[in-house]
Amino acid sequence: MDIVLVTTVISAFFLVIGVAEPLAERLRLPYSVILAMLGVLIAVTATFFLRTTLTDALNPVAEAILGFPIRSNVFLYVFLPTLLFQATLDMNLRRMLDDWVPILMLAVVAVVVATFSVGYALSWASALPLAACLLIGAIVSTTDPSAVVSIFRSISAPRRLARIIEGESLLNDAAAIALFGLFMGFVMLGVPDPSLGDALTRFPVLIAGGALTGWVAARVAVWIMALFNRFELAQVSISIALPYLAYIGAEQSIGASGVIAVVAAGLTLNLTGPGRLPPQTWAYLREVWKLLAHWAGALIFILAALLIPRLLEEVRLGDFVLIGVVIVAAIAARVVILFGLLPLLTLMRLSPAVERPYRVAILWGGLRGAVTLALALAVTESLRVPVEVKRVVGILATGFTLFTLIVQGTTLRSVIGWLGLDRLSPIDQALSRQVVAVALQTVRADVARTTENYELTHDIVRSEAKRFGDKLEKAVKAAEDSADILDRDRITLGLIALAGHERDTILARVRERTISARMADQVLSDADRLIESARSGGRSGYQRAARQSVAYGRLFRAVVILNNRLGLSRPLARMTADRFERLLSQRLILRDLGVFIDGRIRRIHGRRVADLLTELLSRRVEMVETALEGLRLQYPGYAEVLERRFIRRTALRLEEREYMAMREDGLIGAEVHASLMRDLGARRAAADQRPRLDIAPQRTVLVRQLPLFADLDDAALKRLGRAFQTRYANAGDILIQKDSAAKRVFFIASGAVEVQSAGQTWRLGRGEMFGQMAILMQTPRRAEVRAISPSTLLVLEEDRFRRLLRRSEALQQAVRASAEKRGIEPEALLSGTRDPA
C-alpha cells in the first residue's frame, strides 16, 4: 500500500478521534458508541464508493481504508497492552485492596458464569460443538471498561462502588482472554467436548505464569529506571517498553497469559514507581500513558468497527436466532451476578451494598466493544479453525456487540434518567443552595473592592449592584428555605468537605515536595477512605476511618509474624519507617485543617457544626500524636532524623522558589539559573533518600530504658540486649494462653497488656514484666495475657531469666512486689535464686 495513502488514512482516523468526543457530548451518547458508529459509517461509505459507478475519484482512498492492514495481532499486541497498562497505572490500588474480594469475585466469577451460560445455551440451540460454543461465550463475556467508567462518571456514583466496577471491568478482560486462549486451543485441536477438569487445570497456569512474568519484568524495569534518575525521557521510554515486553514474554516464552502479565506489570509499577522515581517524572509518565491510552482506545474502536461489515457479509436468517440466544444468555448471566452474587457478598460483609437502581444501570451498561471484536477476528483469521465455526463466531460476536452499542448504548442515558440517578439528593440540593448563597456573598464583597479600584462609572456600578443584589436575595431566600437539613446531615456534609480539603492539601504538599510521593499515595488513600466512610456512615464512619488510618493493618501483622517467627526483620523495618513518615505527614496535614473549618465550614453549616468538627479534628490529632509517641519510645532518635529531613526538603523548596523569582525578575540569567537548579536537584535527591531504620540494635536502648535493669552496668546491659528477643504485638493479640508451658518471661518496652487469672483482671504497662510467676513456681500458666494496644516486648528465655534474677536486686524486688499482689510468699519463689556467693 502506498505510504501516502496510509498516512492519509491514519491522519483521517485521528481527525475522527478529535471530532468524536465533542460529538458524543452533544448527542449525549457514550464516546465508544460514537467511535463505533463512525467506524461502521466509514467502512460502509468506502464500500459504497468502490461499488458505485458514480465516480472513481475516491476509489484509491476507499481501497486504502478497506485494505488497511487490520489483524487481530495488532489489537492484541499493540493496542490491548496499552489500554490495560494505563488503566492499572490510574488505579488507587491501596483503596482497591480494601475491596479485593468483590472485585475478584465479579471479575472472575462473572466471566466464568457468562462463558458457560452463553456456551451451553448455544450448544442447546445450535449444531456447533460445545468447545466452539464456550469459545463464543468467552469472547462475549468481557465488558468495555471505558463505557463502564463513563457511566459512573455521568451518574456521580459513590467512589467505592465505582472503584469496584472499574476494577472488575479491567480484570475481566484478563479472565476472558485467558478463557479464550483455553477454548481456542480446544477448537484448534479438534477436541469436541472439553472437560471442566481440563479447564481448571490449565487456567491457573495461565494466570500464575502471567502474573510472575509481569512482576519480574516490572521489578527489572523499575530498577533500570531508578538508575537513570536524572533522565526523565529515558525513564518514560522504559515504561513504554515494559507492557509489550511483558506481554510478548508471557505469550511466546512460557505460554502464559500476556494480559495477566501486563496487568501484573502495571500493578507492580503502580505500587513501586512513586517511591523509586522523582514525583515530576511519575506525574509526567502517567500523563504520557493517559494520552497513549486515549489514542489506543479510540483507534481500536474505529479499526474494529471497520471490520463489522466484513464480518457480517455471510449472515443468514438463522444466525439472528443465535444472536438472540447470545443476548438473552449473556444478560441472564449478568442478572445472576448483579442480583444474586452482589447481594450475597453484601450479606457476607465482603462488599458495599449496591442499591437496585445502580445494579440496573450496571446491567444495561454492560457494553461490549473492541476487545470482543478483536478476539472474534483472531478466530476468523486462524487457518486451523473450521470454516463454519469461524463464520458463526464472527457473526455472533459482531451481532452481540452491535446490540450492546446501538440498543443499550443509545438508551443508556434515558435509563439512567428513568432510574433517577442523574438527580441530586434532597440533601445535596439543599447544600448547593447554601453554597451558592455563601459564595455570592463573598463575590459581592470582592466586586465592590474591584469597582473601587477601577473607579467605574457610578450609574454602571449602581445598576450592576442592584442586579447582583436581586440575585443574592433570591439565593439567600432559597438557602433559608432549606432549613429541612438535619443537623446530622450537616455534620456529614461538613465531614465530607473537611476530608475533601484534606485531600487537596495533601496534593498541594506533594507538588511542593514537602511530602514524598511514596507517602502521598498512602495518605491520599486515607483521605479517600475518610470521604467514603463519612458519606456512608456519617460521624461514626468518619471516626472509624480515622482510627483505621493510624491502626496497624493486616500486612503489618504479617510482617510482625515474619520477624517474630522467622527472624526476617527487613520487611518490618521498612513498614515501621513507612509508619513513622506517614504519621509525620498526617500530623503536618491535620495542623492545616482548622483554618478551613473556621473559614469555610462555619459559614456554610453554622457554628455548632464547625465546633463539632473542630473537636473531631482534635481527637484525630491526639490519636496521631499518641501513635507517634509510641514509635518514639520504641525507636528513639529516628523521628528526629525524619523531622530534620522534612526541614531540609522544605528549605530546598523555598530556595527553589527564590531562584525562580530571581529568574523571572531578570536578576539572574538562564545559565546561572540552570547551574543553580542542577545543584539544587543533586541536594534534593540526597534529601529525598529516607534514612534506613535498623530495628535490630534497638534492643539495647530499650533495655536501658527499663527501670528494672537500672542497676546493671553498661557491659551487662549490652550482654542482656543480645540475649533478649524483640516481639511486636497488635491490640488483641494473645501473648500467653492459659495452661500453656512456662518457658519465657516478657518485659513491656512500650504498650500495655491485660492479664486475666482466677476471675481477676489487671493491666500492666511500660517497664513491667509478666510470665515470671509460672517459671518460678514451675507450674503451667494460670493466666491469659492479651495485648490491649500495639506493644513492643522484650522476651527472655527461662534459663537466662533465672541467671539475671540472681544478679539483679531490682528484678528481685519486682518479683517480690508481683508475688505479694497475688498473695504468694515471695521468699519461697526467690529461695532458689540466691547467688551462691
UniProtKB/TrEMBL annotation:
> Which regions span the lipid bilayer?
6-24, 31-50, 70-89, 101-122, 128-149, 170-191, 203-228, 240-268, 288-308, 320-341, 361-380, 392-421
Please classify the protein's predominant subcellular localization into one broad category.
membrane
Q: Does the keyword Secreted apply?
A: no
Question: What name appears for this protein in its UniProt entry?
Answer: Cation:proton antiporter
Q: Does this entry carry the keyword Nucleus?
A: no
Which keywords does this Swiss-Prot/TrEMBL entry list?
Cell membrane, Ion transport, Membrane, Sodium, Sodium transport, Transmembrane, Transmembrane helix, Transport
Where does this one sit in the cell? Answer: Cell membrane
Q: Where is this region: Disordered?
A: 816-837
Output the InterPro entries linked to this UniProt entry: Cation/H_exchanger_CPA1, Cation/H_exchanger_TM, cNMP-bd_dom, cNMP-bd_dom_sf, RmlC-like_jellyroll
| Record Pfam families | cNMP_binding, Na_H_Exchanger
Domain Cyclic nucleotide-binding stretches: 708-822
PANTHER family reported in the protein's UniProt record: SODIUM/HYDROGEN EXCHANGER, SODIUM_HYDROGEN EXCHANGER 7
Q: Which domain of life is it from?
A: Bacteria
